[in-house]
Specification:
This protein is of the alpha+beta class and 319 residues long. The chain has 13 helices and eleven strands. It has three domains: 1-101, Arc Repressor Mutant, subunit A; 107-246, Endonuclease Chain A (Endonuclease, Chain A), CATH 3.30.870.10; 261-315, Orthogonal Bundle (Arc Repressor Mutant, subunit A), CATH 1.10.10. An eight-stranded mixed β-sheet has the order 4-10-9-8-5-6-7-11, sandwiched between helices. It is elongated, with a radius of gyration of 29 Å. The relative contact order is 0.08. It comes from Phytohabitans aurantiacus. Residues 252-317 form the HTH luxR-type domain.
């Protein structure tokens, strides 16, 4: 069991025997275990080095508290694995550089098949260190059972990864999607919207991009673009769309100027460009009721258009 932290099976056996005995010598343990005294003595020296036992006067040994000693070994091994992870990044960079040198005209890797694409994509989603840029547009592959968009992105935001996402307007009209995006914005995501996007796109740390080749679902086949002029062009494309995209308004549920929580929600959807029909679906009401609430909200913020509603929210400091 302790082999994962550098303790051999025999050393663990000696340690367990010492845990079940009073302070004793190597000879005492050798007699208990029916093993050569020299072999037991070597194991005790190793356990002493690892901090699992301490040597007493008279060549006797006592166990150190397992909670503290094993916890220390686990932390040391975790630190070692973190160093390996850092070294792995250097190896990956060296491999990519080799690939680019040998194939300077082909900096694109194709990954195909649902299982391979899913494995690669999930790995990338958990590994960005600094930033993620994304074009988000329908249609989507069916998510795994129990998939939670907010829970998946929360760890990245909490560890300081900058996430900038441009949502195609149709994405925000899907049931429950705007609520998820609003929560992600609250957690730190920077989100904007445009009427239409040319392609789905994911850029990780400005070092690697993923573009689906099927034109629809990411799960079928993807192009992985490594550092190259093509990657630079995709990043420039994102920045160009970002500049002309509209920030998604997240109006506080208890906003000023007499807006109740549901009216604040309607203002959020108006500023995001949702149609009257989409707002009705999000609220779970009839189109007539939705339009009546839209009219009320626009009158409260003195706006005659959706653009003016967004501007009014910005003026009040809600964006």
């Amino acid at each position: 069991m302790l082999e994962a932290v550098g303790v051999s099976a025999f050393e663990e056996r000696v340690y367990r025997a010492l845990l079940g005995s009073a302070d004793c010598s190597a000879a005492d343990l050798a007699a208990t275990l029916r093993e050569p005294a020299r072999t037991v003595s070597t194991a005790l020296a190793r356990l002493d080095e690892l901090g699992l036992v301490r040597r007493l006067e008279g060549r006797r040994y006592a166990p150190v508290s397992p909670e503290a000693a094993i916890g220390k070994l686990v932390n040391q091994r975790r630190a070692e694995l973190d160093e390996v992870r850092g070294a792995a990044d250097e190896f990956v960079d060296a491999f990519r550089l080799r690939d680019l040198r040998n194939n300077p005209d082909h900096p694109v890797e194709v990954v195909s098949g649902p299982d391979e694409v899913r494995r690669f994509s999930v790995g990338m989603q958990h590994n960005p260190e600094k930033s993620v840029l994304s074009f988000d547009k329908p249609p989507y592959a069916t998510p795994p059972a129990g998939y939670d968009e907010v829970a998946a992105e929360r760890p990245l935001l909490e560890r300081g990864v900058e996430m900038r996402v441009i949502y195609e307007r149709a994405a925000l009209q899907l049931p429950g999607r705007l609520a998820n995006v609003t929560e992600l914005i609250r957690l730190g995501e920077k989100a904007r919207t445009v009427p239409a996007l040319p392609v789905k796109l994911y850029v990780y740390d400005h070092r690697l991009a993923i573009v689906p080749l099927s034109g629809a679902h990411v799960s079928e086949a993807i192009a992985v673009i490594h550092p190259s002029a093509l990657l630079d062009a995709l990043i420039a494309l994102f920045e160009a769309y970002w500049e002309r995209a509209t920030a998604i308004v997240t109006v506080p549920p208890r906003a000023a100027d007499g807006l109740d929580p549901q009216e604040a929600r309607v203002l959020t959807m108006l500023a995001a460009g949702l149609s009257d029909q989409a707002i009705a679906r999000q609220l779970g009401v009839s189109l007539r009721t939705a339009r009546r609430r839209i009219t009320t909200v626009m009158e409260l913020v003195h706006a005659s258009t959706r653009f003016q509603a967004g501007a009014a929210a910005a003026h009040r400091g809600w964006i």
